[in-house]
Amino acid sequence: MAENGEEKLLAVARHIAKTLGHNNNNMADDILQIFSNFDGRFSRENLSDKVPDSDPRACAALDHSLKSLDRRISHYVSSDHPIWADSADSASFLDAVDDLVAALSEWSHLASDKSVAACLSRAEDMLQHSMFRLEDEFRSLMERGGESFDVTRPYTESTQNNVPFDSEEDDEEVEDEVGGRNGGEEEQIPVALPVTDYDIVIDALPSGTINDLHEIAKRMVAGGFGKECSHVYSSCRREFLEESLSRLGLLKLSIEEVHKMPWQALEDEIERWIKASNVALRILFPSERRLCDRVFFGFSSAADRSFMEVCRGSAIQLLNFADAVAIGSRSPERLFRILDVFETLRDLIPEFESLFSDQYSVLLRNEAITIWKRLGEAIRGIFMELENLIRRDPAKAAVPGGGLHPITRYVMNYLRAACRSRITLEQVFDEYPKLDDRVASTSSLSVQMDWIMELLESNLEAKSKIYKDPALSYVFLMNNGRYIVQKAKDSELGTLLGDDWIRKHTAKVRQYHVHYQRSSWNKVLGILKLDSGNGSAGPNGAAKTMKEKIKLFNVQFEEICRVQSSWFVFDEQLREEIRIAIEKILLPAYGNFVARFHSVPELGKHADKYIKYGMEDIEARLNNLFKVSSGSNGSRK
């Protein structure tokens, strides 16, 4: 019994030495030495004598085993019919491959023996042929699995209507369905179908096919052909993704091609890019990740590598387009579409972080974040270009009638439209530190808007100096100032500028009004002023003075009304405020003058000869000031 126990103990020791050191003879020697030092019974002689370097019987057994495996495997390797068409055949072939891999593993530690090495060489050749056939079966299964997908659903698309910056209308957002065109010639490639719900995962292949692929992948990895298996898998799935993006309407464009595109064509391409990106990052890529994990279950490195190879090309295509937009023209009218690209990529960053976080694909995640930040820089650059546009707008030709200047209309409608994306813009501008302590409690976007308004006001003040008539320059400032305030009020722009800013600029418009009134009507009011000392000149002198005054009033009033009837005040409320203010100072003064005129005996009898305007006539003439038809220059929009 004791001898049997010792023999079993020695057998265990031999097994441990053989198993742990089968790939490294030096390691086996080290293990034997450790056993020998531990217990004399485990001497190298006792153990090594039991594991001979060359055993003819063992070689014969290996040769016999390989011949049996060769008959089993060659039957399938040489077959013209798909092995996986019959579940019994596929199971038998996999069993034979398993036995072959096990045999190689078991005998590889004796590869130094020439007889064993020759057998192992045959086994490795047999394994290679088996792997090639498994690779073919793997590819065939993936292609056959795709045939169950319907790729003929029609694809329709619509475009978003764009509203010019000088329009008061809100932008209309049209949500398009996502889809693909009829596939026709290449229906063997499974393609993502049109979807509107991004919170789904598609089963790219039937469950049974996935299980079969996993079984093949498991053998190919065990046989040392994991990279080859990954390559076949990736090439098939990569084709699926590329075709899917193509059917979503997305073109493969270089950065140079994007930059050369007409703006309208680029707008349409951005719309398609947004939808393709959402479908790719929310549906296609997660589905591919899920498929990789199922096919390569238990082999995380192979799964990660395969997923990266499948998605890299499509992800780079999407990112390159966004990058081309980011480094392209910074013309102000491009802001709104670049905001769309920025917001889309921002919202997809969590998907990039969850999908592309392993060692093989982390660079894609980092590139997505870099391009997203670059888009933010582009948006800031566009606002700098807007500032330059305002600065460069020349103060040459005056707007007829002191009307609304095109730069005012453009800038205010532009900023109102931009501020509809206030949250996004605040995110963009808050990337920079505050400028100074004065604005420490204000968002960087508020500072930016305030600065643009200052530039616009300075530009308008310079333009007002073109007018030779001071009264007309104040009408110009009133019109543009009122428009600025009205556009800022009750909007996100006004919220950013603040109530104090609104009050300050409303007061500015009132001040322009006062200056206009003084420069236009003070001289007329001076004519109507009654001198208390006129009586000392005698009745004849007073009559003469009164006649001269009424004649001068008639001339100047007529001239003011003639000139200012061609001036423009577009805001109806402002026009009414100006008219009422003139009436309040002019009508009482004129009424007093006319009454005094009638009281002079020498004039009263012939008053109608000198008094050209009655009170109602004055009101009627004032009511015709600043009238403008809807089609006139500078219409209020």
Automatic annotation (TrEMBL):
Single biological process term from Gene Ontology: protein transport
Gene3D superfamilies: Exocyst complex component Exo70
Protein's UniProt keywords contain Translocase: no
GO MF term (any one): phosphatidylinositol-4,5-bisphosphate binding
Acidic residues biased stretches: 166-177
Family statement drawn from the similarity comment of this UniProt entry: Belongs to the EXO70 family.
Name of the protein: Exocyst subunit Exo70 family protein
Known function: Component of the exocyst complex.
Domain called Exocyst complex subunit Exo70 C-terminal: residue spans: 272-623
A GO-annotated cellular component: exocyst
Residues covered by region (Disordered): 149-187
Domain of life: Eukaryota
Comp. bias intervals (Polar residues): 155-164
UniProtKB keywords: Exocytosis, Protein transport, Transport
